[in-house]
Amino acid sequence: MERILRERDLLLQRTARVFGLGFTALALVLLALPGAVEPGTLLLTLPLFGVLAYSQYRISVSAWLRWAIATDLSALLIVLLVSVRPEGETTLAGMLGAAQLAAGSTSSIAVVMKPRASRLAVVSVSFVLSVALIIFVTFGTGYTPALLAFVLFVWTAAFLVGSWLSASLRRASRRIANIGRAHRAERQASETEAQRRQGARLLHDTVLATLTLLAHSGYGVSEGALRQQAADDARLLRQLRLGAAPAPQSSNGYTLEPVDESVLGNTLENVKQRFGRMGLEVSWHGTGQVLLPSEILDAFLLSLAECLENVRRHSGVTVAHVTITDDPTTVRALVTDSGVGFDIGDIDTAKLGFKESVVARLRDVGGNARLFSAPGSGTTVVLEVPK
């Protein structure tokens, strides 16, 4: 979105430059015609034309006020200079040149105007001075109505061009954002469907095949082979429960982790990826190279996953931090978030979620869990298990 806004501002700047510099160049050509203005007056206006052109080139959104004032002052001073003719009336070429400056050069600032009090004041003063000077320059010549109408038309066009471009780009940015959200939703749905189909194929190739053999009393398969296949399926189900995605092999089997001991970092990455798919970014800190027995690792990771699920559902934030530390006897995980928090005293003791899924599960393997939270201050959970 920020990039779209920057591109919008650049487009408005370029439009204002082309708009203003075009009228400035035309005004200079008209004033340079023979007899339009005195040669001395023309030479006197050339530095002002230089200031005007440079200000129009440098006009930007960030430093708009400075360059807008420089544009207006230089253009209006040129109009004043060419209107002073001691020896006679102003020529038609001189009046037309003044009209180009009052109409187009000064109104170019309206293309990049934003609805702020200071900017509205500058544009309003510029418009009033431009109209007043054109009336002054052309008064009594008979060209006043036509040139005044020209000035009003160009100022209106500048407002409309700037407003139309800004509104169009805002609509385009909203539509692009909507398309992006739709794309992300479609991609998430596709990934979920792909995961579902992969899971269905995996279960069909393993657990369901084993259950089919059991239903047929293991016909054609030895008791030892059937027992081994059931043990492999049990390890597979454990990996799925922890968020892993076992890779299929050409032998119709699956790559599985050893059941006795697993490196904590490997399974932590699986948990991180699983919650990332659900919209919760998990930031890991500390060590992951810790070996834990299977039953302790299961309890530790399932408790950790339950804490992250609580963050995802209740905290109101999309980022959680998990810090893993260990000493010779204990592995600890700190799960923290900066969400809405809550009053621990308000927890309904009848609810079994945290009590059973985290505290009781860890105590069954000799571990412990502690909870810290306050309204508006986020939540921290400390999980501890023995090595």
Could you characterize what this model shows?
The chain contains eleven helices and seven strands. The chain is of the alpha+beta class and 387 residues long. The chain folds into three domains: 2-176, no CATH class; 206-257, no CATH class; 261-386, 2-Layer Sandwich (Heat Shock Protein 90). Helix 1 packs antiparallel against helix 6 (144-205), helix 4 runs parallel beside helix 6 (144-205) and helix 5 (117-138) packs antiparallel against helix 6 (144-205). It is elongated. Mean pLDDT is 78; it is low at 249-254 and 256-263.
Fold blueprint:
Layout: H1 2-31, H2 39-58, H3 64-83, H4 92-105, H5 117-138, H6 144-205, H7 207-215, H8 223-241, E1 261-263, H9 264-277, E2 281-286, E3 291-293, H10 294-315, E4 319-326, E5 330-337, H11 353-363, E6 368-373, E7 379-386
Parallel strand pairs: 2-4
Antiparallel strand pairs: 1-3, 4-5, 5-7, 6-7
Features:
3 domains, 387 residues, two-stranded antiparallel sheet, 11 helices, Heat Shock Protein 90, alpha+beta
Oligomer: single chain
Number of strands: 7
How are the strands ordered across the major sheet?
2-4-5-7-6
Total discrete domains: 3
User: Count of DSSP helices?
Assistant: 11
Mean pLDDT: 78
Radius of gyration: 38 Å
Summarize the structure.
The protein has 387 residues and is of the alpha+beta class. It contains eleven helices and seven strands.
